[in-house]
Structure formats: C-alpha cells, structure tokens
TrEMBL record, chains A, B:
DNA-binding region per Swiss-Prot/TrEMBL record: 14-53
Database matches in NCBIfam families: PRK05472.2-1, PRK05472.2-2, PRK05472.2-3, PRK05472.2-4, PRK05472.2-5
One GO cellular component term noted in the UniProt record for this chain: cytoplasm
Span of domain CoA-binding: 77-178
UniProt lineage: Bacteria, Thermotogati, Deinococcota, Deinococci, Trueperales
Protein source organism: Truepera radiovictrix (strain DSM 17093 / CIP 108686 / LMG 22925 / RQ-24)
Protein name per the record: Redox-sensing transcriptional repressor Rex
Gene of this entry: rex
Record's function text: Modulates transcription in response to changes in cellular NADH/NAD(+) redox state.
Length: 213, 213
DNA sequence: ATATGTGAATTGATTCACAGCG
DNA sequence: CGCTGTGAATCAATTCACATAT
C-alpha cells in the first residue's frame, strides 16, 4: 500500500459511482467483470485497484454491492462531510455554486468570494458573496477544507495564494493555469479548455490514441 | 512517433499556454528548463515530450517562443477552427456557452440543444436553443466537429448517442458518467465531482501522493 | 465451478547521462 | 561552452496466469 497510482484513485471514483447506481437499482451482487464493463477498463485492473486497499470480495461469488460501496466511500474519505468555499463568482462560479446535489455528496458549500466590489453582497445559491479579504476568517470560523478557483487565468495564482494563506487543505482549480502551491496542498485541475485542445489533437490523430485519463 | 503518451499531450497543452503568455509579454527566447519550471515538470520531460514530434530548438541557445508556439499549435491541431455544439442548457451549459474568448481559441459554438421544451427557443450566448431532434441536421449543415455534454448523469448516455448519430468526431463530457461510444469517437471527460473526490482522498492520505494528472 | 487476489511478466513512461550541434 | 535531442536505464503501471477460497 506504500504507493498507489493516481489513475487507480480516479478509477475507484468511477467504481463507486457504478456501485451507487447498482445500489439504487436494488442490485445486490456484482463482479470485477461487470464493474470493468461499466467503467471501460479490464477486470484485472478492477481487482488490482481494489487490492491496493484490501480484500473486499468473495472468491467464486464476486462482490456485495453495499459492502464494496461502503468500503470505497471509506477509502476515498467520503463518509465524513467536507466544507468548501468558492473564489470567483462569475458565471462559472455561479454555475458550480448551484450544482444540484452538492450536499448529496457530502460536500457543503459554505462561502462564496470575489474581489470585485460589484459582486460582493450579492446572493448566490443561498450564500452572500464576500470579499476575498474575508477568506481567512471564514475558513477558520466555518472549518473550510477545500477551495474552488473559478476566476480567470490572470487571477488564478492570486486566488490560490489567498486560499493557501487562509488555510485550506486542497484546491479544485477550474482556471486554465498551473498554480504554484506548497507541496502539502493538493490541487486537482478541472480544465475544460485543456480537454478541448486534447480533443483537437486526438480527432486529427486518431491512430495515436491509447487510453483516456 | 508511433505512440505518444496521453500525459504528453496534456503537457503540450500546458507548454502552449505558457508560450502564449511569454509571447504576450514580448519574450522571444525560452529553454526547456524555463518551460519545465512554469509547467511544474522536469526539463527532461519537456525535451522528451517535444522529441515525439520533431526538433524545435537550437542547441546551446534554447527555443524561439513564436516558433515553438506555432509548432505546438500545429501539432495540437489549433491552426484550424473547430465548430462545437452543446447539449444540455442548464446552468452549467449556459456557463460554458458564455465562456469568454471561446473564439479566441478558435473554437466556435454553433449550436445549443436541450430536450426540455421549456428551454427550446430561448436565447443563450447569441444562439437559439434547439431541440435535440434537430442535432443531425445542424451538425450536417454547420459542419460541427465537437459536442459538449452538459446534461445530468441520467441523460448523459442519451446525449452521447444523439451526438454520435449526428456525426460529431469528438465529445467533451462534463457529466459524471462513463459514456459508451464507438471507438473512433474520442471522449474527453471534464468531471469536477470526480476531482473533488480525488481531493478528498489525497487530503486524507497525503503520503500516497506522487503526481497529478 | 467460479471469481477473487496476487506474484511474475510485460509493457509503458520517466529519468538519466551524454553525444551532437550551434 | 551551453542547451538540445536521444538511446539506454530505471522506475511505474498494467496485464497475465494461476493458486486460492467458497
């Protein structure tokens, strides 16, 4: 268990999603082969990914949906709830803030911030937009763990600096920017422009494609 | 050049972004080391990534910013323009449709679609929302290459099927869903909920982190 | 009988060290 | 002399094959 591939974590998230659907459909049993089909990976891969964390199945029988789902939620840290704040209340920030069922995933949006005085004071998704200067206080008082960056490219590093100073533990970065943060802060990029450019490449070079992250 | 790692393509996109900034700042020369710093990778990695596609530098001197930028745009297929259509005109779809400077990247949004009759007919970002049934005609008439899926999870596979039937060549999938498409169609996932869950894992297991995709 | 769990083999990606060129 | 370009070496991830458990 000393080192787990990043790709494994991404796939665990996918398996969890599939198990959640299966559970909602009332299906009780599954197998590495079924999960592999749904996740578009090999059954070997599913078993190896799970093996990094333990043994969750029954030989000859497969996996019990609720059990495996519970284990994956525990592994991914989704049995507790996480508090988040969003920096950048333009259209993208608003869309993210309104994302339905945030709470259903145990992510609680507890703060919305911007530097633009015209945006400060507005109501968005039940939150009053505050100035970024308030970030350290709000992060402390509300116990915010995660920051979302939804500002334009030029402002992304400043937003990251502000979030790090305020004390968040991780950042979900929607800006098309490689941000520089202390190594103990984890950053997950969510960069749709980059995805669009990769798409351009792969449409023109279909033969050079193996697998998608 | 027979096979190029997916991660290389992602990094080329990053290098291009950095070069674009350098060019905007009027900087004419750079080096693998400088690019590596900005992109948070090693200089070896930069040179190896470029080597998959040719030789773009001058030994002893480094790279010429405008030249390397032009070459990367060519490699990634960004010297032509791409036409896109978006399926799902909820908040996320609207936010994406309004994304500033879409055109600046030579991506042209030429159609907006939904199945909800209440949304059909509305104006969004200069486009009239059309029913998904119109997709095949519009894709054909407007020469649309790329489809964006911004519908909820439950509708994602149907949206993908509609886009594939209409004849798009690639899909940018914002839904939290592994969609099933013919293998010649490339799909790029842009899944922020998955990013959020990975973040949860890495905040709880900081020791298990190596690199971020 | 059947499907998991896992060491070994293979494949792929990154790092290295230095040859090659300006 | 400096920095790129690249084969060789290392390191990591995936695939395989089968022993193992029910």
């Amino acid at each position: 268990m000393s080192t787990v591939p990043t790709a494994t974590i991404s796939r665990l998230v996918t398996y969890l999603r599939i198990l959640t659907q299966l559970e909602a459909q009332g299906i009780k049993k599954t197998s590495s082969e079924h999960l592999a089909d749904e996740a578009q990976v090999s059954a070997f891969q599913v078993r190896k990914d799970l093996a990094y964390f333990g043994r969750f199945g029954t030989r000859g029988a497969g996996y019990t949906v609720p059990t495996l789902r519970r284990e994956l939620r525990r592994i991914l840290g989704l049995t507790r709830s996480w508090s988040a704040a969003i920096v950048g209340m333009g259209r993208l920030g608003e869309a993210i803030a309104h994302y339905p069922n945030f709470g259903a995933y145990d992510f609680l949006l507890k703060g919305a911030f911007d530097i633009d005085p015209h945006k400060v004071g507005r109501e968005v998704a039940g939150l009053t937009v505050q100035h970024v200067d308030e970030l350290p206080r709000v992060v402390r008082e509300k116990g915010i763990d995660i920051g979302f960056i939804t500002v334009p490219h030029e402002a992304a590093q400043d937003a990251a600096d502000a979030l790090v100073r305020a004390g968040v533990k991780g950042i979900l970065n929607f800006a098309p920017t490689v941000i520089d943060v202390p190594k103990e802060i984890h950053v997950e990029p969510v960069d749709f422009l980059a995805g669009l450019k990769r798409l351009s490449f792969y449409i023109l070079n279909p033969q050079l494609r193996e697998e998608v992250a």
